[in-house]
Amino acid sequence: KLILLDSLLQEIIKMLIKNVLSPCLIAIALSQHTPIKDTPYFLTRPKVYKAQVGHSIRLECNVSNLGNYVLLWKQGPRIISANSVIVRRDARLSLVETDLVISPLDQGDEGEYECE
Fold first, then answer.
1. Dihedral through CA 60, CA 66, CA 72, CA 77, nearest 10?
2. In terms of pLDDT, which residue wins out, 50 or 27?
3. CA-based nearest residue to 112, from 73, 83, 63
């Protein structure tokens, strides 16, 4: 959902720049982009992690206004955790607050991870 919102914002900026609006108007458009009150939103941006097999890694996920919503960690379509509960049977997986820690890494850990 965050990616869609960011994509929408990027399209608005492109449209404003394309139509040769002043930087003042662009700043106004940006300042109006605020999260809806009491709705969770992600503070962490997508990133690529690189690590060596046998080492550990901490995948960050910072969310504001989580409230009663459930935070999921997924690897592809497979759910790893729901809130503070690891649902995948793998002793190498743990949570530190909302971050996912994998230790030690093995080759099968490579892939896309998502917190949502």
1. -100
2. 50
3. 73
Is the pLDDT at 31 greater than 50? The verdict is no
Q: What is the pTM of this model?
A: 0.68
Which two structure tokens, joined as six digits, stand for 57? Answer: 């890694």
pLDDT per position as a tens digit, 48-98: 998 999 999 999 999 998 888 999 999 999 999 999 999 999 999 999 999
Per-residue tokens: 20: 């040769």
DSSP of 14-65, one letter per residue? HHHHHTT--HHHHHHHHHT--PPTT--EE-SPP------TTS-EEE---EE-
Residue 81 backbone class (left: φ over 0; alpha: ψ -120 to 50; beta: rest):
beta
Residue that has been written with the tokens 């459930």 in this structure: 70
Whether the bond into 104 is cis, omega within 30 of 0:
yes
Q: Which two tokens stand for residue 56?
A: 């550990």
Q: What share of the chain is helix, strand, coil (3-state, %, to 5)?
A: 25, 25, 50
